[in-house]
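In the lab's daily routine, each protein ends up as an entry in a very long ledger. A line of letters takes care of the sequence, but it says nothing directly about the fold. The fold becomes a row of whole numbers, each drawn from a learned catalogue of backbone shapes. The protein below has been through that process, and both of its lines are reproduced in full:
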Amino acid sequence: MDNLFHQPQGGNEMPRFAGRATMMRLPFIEDLQGLDAAFVGIPLDIGTSQRSGTRYGPRYIRAESVMIRPYNMATGAAPFDSLSVADIGDVPINTYSLLKSVQIIEDYYTGLNSYPLIPLTLGGDHTITLPILRALAKKHGPVGLIHVDAHTDTNDEMFGEKIAHGTTFRRAVEEGLLDLKRVVQIGQRAQGYAAGDFQWGVDQGFRLVQAEQCWHTSLAPLMAEVRQQMGDGPVYLSFDIDSLDPIWAPGTGRRKLAV
């Protein structure tokens, strides 16, 4: 079947403050056949340990995305000219049960495995990554990981719970979801509870690039190294907004001072 390259709705077709709220004003599609990639929202914040509100993340990311245009004038990137991309809506999580929500997310992404598309997820607190990795591992086996975050999210437990936003990658290692030779964590910074707070992942084989190693320098050499490390195997990219200085993203659920 020939792919249909969906284009974002233009500002002269519908005012940017109007119309259906989809990512980048792409079409909302329920039939996933023929898609190369799909935006999926997971409106979950019951796994966070500080501030709630990331349940509204997918909604507001979509709202702000109306100003993103389909061509990058600096790089020449024009993804919608060669890829069929659409918004397929949100995962219907259980807002009263974190464990049930984790299972719902895993089941949803397991269903996506039936299609040759790449899911582009809008969260949602970082708990959502574990069930996504569980589903991806069913199709691909252990995957590489590029994890950009102020924290390592490798706690063993939080308030006695094994599943939470800060335990995601320890569970992923224990369950064999990651290819440990192809894991890099970038942007971890500032304070900890003990000197070895970042060490657990390093001991498993993770590459750790702390935030101060990224300051006042081009990131191009680092990205070249990361691409080489990832190779041609499947890779999951996870970007936590708290990797940014909270002066730029004060609404994050787990602010960490950039000092």
Remarks:
- Residues 145 and 183 are 5 Å apart (CA to CA).
- The longest strand covers residues 178-186.
